[in-house]
Amino acid sequence: MCGIVAYIGNKPAFPILINGLKRLEYRGYDSAGVALYENSGLNVLKKEGKVAALEAFAVDKASDSTLGIAHTRWATHGAPNDVNAHPHLSADGSLAIIHNGIIENYHSIKAELHDKGYAFESDTDTEVLVTFIQDIRDTHNLSFEDAVITSLSKVIGAYAIVVINQDNPDQMIAARKGSPMVIGLGDGEYFIASDATPIVEFTKDVIYLNDEEIAIIQRDGYRITNTSNVPLIPSIQKLDIQLEALEKGGYEHFMLKEIFGQPESIADCMRGRLNARERKLTLGGIREYANKLVNAEKITILGCGTSWHAGLVAEYILEDICRIPVEVEYASEFRYRNPVIKEGDIIIAISQSGETADTLAAIELAKSKGAIVFGVVNAVGSSIARATHEGAYLHAGPEIGVASTKAFTGQLTVLTMIALKVGYLKGTITESQYGDLLYELESIPKKVAQALETDKRIQEISAKFKDATNCLYLGRGYNFPVALEGALKLKEISYIHAEGYPAAEMKHGPIALIDENMPVVFIATRDSSYEKIISNIQEVKSRKGKVIAIVSQHDEEIERMADFTIEVPSSHEALMPLISVIPLQLLSYHIAIMRGCNVDQPRNLAKSVTVE
Ligand code: M6R
Hints:
Glutamine Phosphoribosylpyrophosphate, subunit 1, domain 1; 7-stranded antiparallel beta sheet; Rossmann fold; single chain; 3 domains; alpha/beta
């Protein structure tokens, strides 16, 4: 949550900061601001709303300063408005800060500062933190650097901060604990950001700051220290992101680009790993611990939101193919409920961003109990990728739309490859089943491309349901998690209330909701529960519900019953979620657009949930 970007160098900072904020806007977009070093004082410009509103407001007020910090906010403390927007100034105006995270003990610090006579303009924990730094500096006569380090040793919570100082036009100080931060090393210039997207067009050399590390960046060089001010040797890494991946490439929205990019992103995920003709499946990232997976007595999968749904599909596949019992847990519940985890237990943590605070904390808890943690992560170099013992990247490229689409199919692809590999090594699938499934998996990009051809039909159906206020999504077996995912997509971007259920559970309650106004989306492709789901469709029809069914090609039986059908290509049932989710992504996209919603940046949401 919240995006931060900072620049020190030889170019005007303002355009770099504004463009950087636009790249980071997926992380939060309720208000934005910049602070520029100027001889007359720190020039802070802030505005409620999107980065574009800040840009319009600030463009004629910003100087050519070559040192500045900027922030796009997802509110945690205090309403989204101009005053609560970052950057915040210390009480005396000498320091400016941007902050991503939450200072949990800010109440007690604020009370102490109040007693000393300080007053605050905003409701934020961040303004308290910057005034705390100022107070420590002034009370103990410390340098700027020592004041930052001392104050951070007294705060509890998560932060990625950058602080600049009116008394020093050549320096900025950054620190992180629990919130991501990347430093870009340019030629006579430095960039700091929440992720690499604002940096990539300037330099490929980056340092991912670790927890409890502090970076002191000067115009003529930088130092990284720990919280005891002991110098550290940073590891400089090369970025592997292309600029085009961060742009819309002719699509109206990132979400649409990402939906239509799935044939390619799924193929990228398998590239160099899967070759069905040669019966080769190589997952370099799980080599060292492959035996542990094969011999696992149980696997626990952790994730949030869409990643949790991918985990549910994986539960079905891993149990089916590998005969290993699987539990899928919301990371947010797991971390607080004293779970039974023993030395050597196997955990798979799933995350697109690699920064989800609950998932990260759940991983640390599992590791503290001796578990081996595999990561299934999209964002390269992210905190979760680095916190796990081994893992496999999705290679789906940056996902920018807040609604997760290509990351979901990338997660399913990686998890399926893991299951196939383990099932094969364990001997729980036959040689011929293994070979067939490799071929099937390899053909998925082509089938996803065919599923995308339903777009026109889905637009027509969307027009009929755009004014619905509720919607049910029902599926059985492998398609049950897909129903959950379809419902999540619809509610998060169109604000229509939607619920996903196993189709058979409908008669234990939700059936009471069904009347002639209730759209019910069935994921009813031909699989082992096909006959059963037909009965469920009949139950809905006999109560006058409106049925939209995702079906296999040429399914005349369901076509006769349903109000609308959307045909998708067939595959092995374990792989069908990769295909059947596509029309659901398109349905939510078109309905949201027809309702005038901002699909890339839905209200109240952020792409990376780095607070719990
Ligand atoms: O980055 P992660 O995969 O860890 O994020 C988990 C959820 O926050 C995320 O999937 C969220 O539910 C999406 N907005 C769903 O589209």
